[in-house]
Design goal:
The protein is an alpha+beta fold and about 200 residues long. The protein has helices at about 75-80, 110-115, 155-160, 185-195; strands at about 10-20, 30-40, 45-50, 60-70, 85-95, 100-110, 120-125, 130, 145-155. A hairpin with a 5-residue loop joins strand 2 and strand 3. It is elongated.
Length: about 200
């Protein structure tokens, strides 16, 4: 039996709700949130919310979810506690025919805080350190509301839940024992995130 089939299942649900205190940003058109999640071996997974615009009356509101599932070695979970989830508030812009974006604010959520929270559920406003387009330093720093739920399922529980043969679990050739995801998992995550955005 492939050793990867004995790995626990790691499930992460992220929801980017809304932003507040955006008055310090000169323009609030085409705002979106970008997340960077560590994927092992110095690789990161990038997730983007849809772009929204706000005004004095309306705050940027996304209410957008992302779900990631993977098998990972226990060592990865221990390594993850030393990492942080990076959250950026960004603004989309068009230069000629090319669509790009720039960072307005950046914040971090230590994975240790997420993994050690009750039931591994995190729901907080994350403070953004302004990087650009700050209109007035007297305004409060922007914040983004984030919900994260983590589930780690042991191999035996996973087997019962799937009620299926291991060679039908979707894994093609197993996983790198020192990384969270195989190359196939990484591609599936990226595709799932893109589809989720539409």
């Amino acid at each position: 039996m492939d050793q990867s089939h004995k790995l626990p299942s790691f499930s992460c649900e992220l929801r980017i709700m809304q932003a507040q205190n955006v008055e310090s940003i000169k323009s609030t058109k085409n705002l979106f949130a970008r997340l960077y999640l560590p994927a092992g071996n110095k690789k990161r997974i990038q997730l983007n919310t849809k772009k929204v615009s706000s005004s004095i009356k309306y705050v940027p509101f996304w209410n957008q979810s992302f779900s990631l599932d993977c098998s990972c070695p226990q060592e990865f979970l221990e390594t993850l506690k030393k990492e942080s989830l990076v959250l950026e508030l960004r603004q989309g812009k068009v230069l000629g025919r090319i669509w790009g974006s720039h960072v307005v604010g950046r914040g971090e959520i230590p994975w240790k805080a997420i993994l050690e929270s009750p039931n591994m559920e995190f729901n907080e406003w994350v403070k953004m350190d302004l990087v650009s387009d700050c209109e007035d330093a007297t305004f409060k720093a922007p914040q983004v509301q984030v919900e994260i739920k983590i589930r780690v399922e042991k191999e035996n529980n996973r087997r019962r839940r799937l009620n299926n043969k291991w060679d039908q679990c979707g894994c093609k050739h197993g996983h790198d024992q020192h990384a969270w995801c195989s190359a196939e998992d990484y591609d599936i995550f990226a595709l799932g995130a893109i589809l989720e955005a539409f």
